[in-house]
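Collaborator request, handled under Task 6.
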Amino acid sequence: MARPLVLCSNDDGIEAPHLEALAASIEQFADVVVVAPERQRSAASHAITLHKPLRLTEVRPRRFSLSGTPVDCVYLAILKVCDRKPDVVVSGVNDGFNLGSDVFYSGTVAAAVEGALRGAAGIACSLAPRAPKPDEAIAFAAAVVRAAIAEPMPRGTVLNVNMPGTGSDTYEWTMLGRRLYEDDVSERNDPRGRPYYWVGGGPAGHDDVEGSDCVAIARGHNSITPMHLDLTDRGRITAPPWTVEGFRVVVGSAK
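Structure tokens returned to the collaborator:
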């Protein structure tokens, strides 16, 4: 009987140390293929490359770099590189948390989402920057992958895993919290006097919502947040709070 197949990717690039460490841990119980961006592609979200060619390079056996985004990596890996459909697509381990609304910007999470879109279990794994005990966190991430193989997740489910990297063996099932940022646009001038911009400020904290991923991490626990590809707000389909003037609503047509 063939071993399970796990596709590993990330948004930090093929040479990110946590990527190979996670792949090596998973190889103890599954076959592994790694396809990752050739360079840093953090915050790429679900971008896919449509208007230029992609270059794939086998840097080591079963380890490939791609001149594209994290989603490109998963897309191309499943359709061209893997000899069979992966059971799990795991993305990470990211250098830095992906909590709350971070999931909408994260290339790490997007790679896992792409895996789920293509029928695999999707798992995104992220670690505190400069974590004191990354090896224990990587072992936890591998254990989550093993569990997802043993007990397959419902189709369309993505697990967003965040780890403090302190050696904690505790975890919580959580919901997405609300991470707060100091939003900023910094304007500067180049040597020719033309303006350019840096966007994005640093994290300023989080809302203390009990049961959220942010609170679990603040407690020093690992966090597992189940997410789903269906973003529909079903509570508003049959009872919208406002009307569109001049048009007739057909109640229940979206059921």
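The cover message to the collaborator said: "The chain has a mean pLDDT of 94. The first strand starts at residue 5 and ends at 9. Please let us know whether this matches your experimental observations."
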